[in-house]
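Reply to dn_fold:

You asked what the input looked like. This is it:
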Amino acid sequence: MKKDLLSLLDLEKEDFEILFKRAIQLKERYAKGILDKLLTGKTLGLIFDKKSTRTRIAFETAMIQLGGHPIYMSTQDTQISRNEPAKDTARVLSRYIDCLAMRTFDHSLVEEFAKSSTIPVINALTDSFHPCQILSDLMTIIEHKGGYEGIKIVWVGDGNNVANTWINAASVLDLDLTVASPQGFEIDAHIIKAASADKKSHIRFTNDPRDAVKNADVVYTDVWASMGDEHELSERIEAFKGFQVNKALLSLARKDVLTMHCLPAHRGEEISEDVLEDKNSVFWDQAENKRHMHKAILEKLILKN
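and this is what came back:
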């Protein structure tokens, strides 16, 4: 039976643990020069509506290093751009490729592809969720902190798709998560309700970033205006005053606090230049770990392990 990864609510806690363990193992083996050609002869399709650096290259290199072949498809280069129904494209691609990763705006499009496909479908980012990102971020936390249990994670910024995905992860894994967003830019109520996060004491919401980061082990931020919201940037810069992750804010957290950002970063907006270059920042580890986590995801879904 095929399995999709559209949001982290598709996973059980055991699935998380399997992916963390396998991704770390694959990373260690690659560092030793061991090449795991587990997906020889397999093909990954990539349909991307949104621009990408890390996610696209991480998926492509992951597939190549596992012995498979990625095929990148811009929506404009396919019949989707000529209004071919998603279900028809999904059925055809299921006859050609072994797995499909999609990066698009409307989450319902990924859901429609998954419903009509006989191959696994991976959400490589929608306006609602970014599951592969948070899986690799949690892998990074495990590497640096020895695990995620008892770790206070604080989100500072917009209630966007990455924040939504942290809510899903926290709901499944019982993470100690605090979300600090300005009024009017909080996580949507239906996201919180769907994950039952409104019923869990270990997930908290506030409009006060200074209170949120007290004794934090991890502070995570993202751009204030996501793809598609760039026209609101000037308004958001005003609304997000006090929400920049900088040295003053981090002084309230633990001394060994990890600062995280899924990138690209807007230096001087959501995060200060000196924090980006600080020794406790793990942005580049996050970016590297996407490749290894993508390997683990592809192996699990394509080989049905």
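The radius of gyration is 19 Å.
Hope that clears it up.
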